[in-house]
Amino acid sequence: MRDPAVTFLVILVIGIAAGLLFDRLAGPSWLARQFSGSSRGIITSALVGIAGAFIGYHIAVLLALGSGLVMAAIAAALGAAAVLFAWRMAK
Predict the structure, then answer these.
(1) DSSP line for 44-76
(2) pTM
């Protein structure tokens, strides 16, 4: 049995890291720069990454894809990447 606090912290760290990495590598889209005039904040990218990590983790739990911490981390990373990509396309 894994500790819920450890799982929460792992998902949180993965979401923040994915958001910061995405913001650093992808940057704002051309359309977002045209409308906003500036780049979006690093905090916003981190928060969207956290949301995606939690979505990915909960989808993996609902589908019973695995019970280990490694599977939770992989699902959180995939969820964060998917939500960050969708968020960038929507901007």
Answers:
(1) HHHHHHHHHHHHHHHHHHHTT---SHHHHHHHH
(2) 0.79
